[in-house]
């Protein structure tokens, strides 16, 4: 499921990540922020569904590579983000 538009700052973060990957001899052809609903759905949805916005706190950024069968992600590196001064428990959790 792809988000509508790109979150503020995503372009800059992605450009920095791609730059650092290139310096390390790796290529990152592209990425869009998304949520995977199901890798094994029996068929694609035939309609577009509107899902209300969900706000959640991001406290960590992971660099992963996806591979294998069953498909999974291997964490290459991770970075903790600073906790905002006012943190609230979100209804998602």
From TrEMBL:
UniProt-recorded name of the protein: 2'-5' RNA ligase
Organism: Roseateles asaccharophilus
């Amino acid at each position: 499921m792809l988000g509508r538009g790109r979150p503020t700052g995503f372009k800059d973060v992605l450009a920095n990540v791609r730059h650092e990957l290139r310096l390390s001899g790796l290529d990152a052809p592209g990425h869009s922020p998304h949520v995977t609903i199901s890798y094994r759905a029996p068929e694609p949805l035939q309609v577009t569904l509107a899902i209300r916005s969900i706000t959640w706190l991001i406290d960590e950024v992971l660099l992963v590579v996806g591979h294998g069968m069953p498909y999974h992600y291997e964490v290459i590196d991770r970075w903790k983000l600073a906790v905002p001064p006012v943190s609230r428990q979100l209804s998602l959790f």
